[in-house]
Amino acid sequence: MEERKWLDIAKKLQSIAQAGLEYSKDKYDLERFEEIRKVSIDIMECYTDIEREKIKNLFAGETGYQTPKIDIRAAVFHENKILMVKEKLDNRWSLPGGWADIDLSLKENLIKEAMEEAGAKIIPERILAVYDRNRNTNILFPHSVYKIFVQCKYLESKFVENIETEETGFFSVDQLPELSETRNTASQIKMCFRYKDRPFHEPYFD
Predict the structure, then answer these.
(1) Fewer CB in 10 Å around end: N or C, the chain?
(2) Cβ(183)–Cβ(94) below 8 Å
(3) How are beta strands 81-87 and 165-171 bridged, if at all?
(4) Parent domain of 177
(5) Within 13 A of 194's CA, how many CA atoms are on the CB side?
(6) Are 54 and 73 members of one domain?
(7) pTM assigned to the model
(8) How far apart are the C-alpha atoms of 182 and 22, rounded to whole Å?
């Protein structure tokens, strides 16, 4: 797909520019790296639906060597159903989760997200999979993202109104709601069901 090819090129240019701006000292080199960054933004603007200012803001705070962002997802099972939340941004459903906070461990992030989004108390148990986001969806995104799916033990829940989600529920594998595919796909949810009863199965990764 042409859009994906050009997005990959733009991301590589952005990575080169970001590293150059961090480590170069020569003022002329810095100017060249700024120009490379502008070219990467031009390409992204042409091949995505994201506004130019938003693309610029996404990269403005990025410094140092570029690395993937981390998106965590809690696969919480109860009576052979999986816990999901309805996102306010698109009125579709996802596993509790989101960007990992830098001051929390993976377990702490999962516990926090499950409580904030679903009002659920959980115990993270094992990693099921680590996906490269852009290799597993046709919805393009300017950053590289690793998505970590973790099986969690359900304790109890009481949904509390919050700014991110509007309701929560448990769903069987053959009755999934309309999914927020920027957050999780049907194949990823089905993977969670498939691996949950295989305690010795090694985590999947791209």
Answers:
(1) N
(2) yes
(3) antiparallel
(4) 69-205
(5) 10
(6) no
(7) 0.75
(8) 30
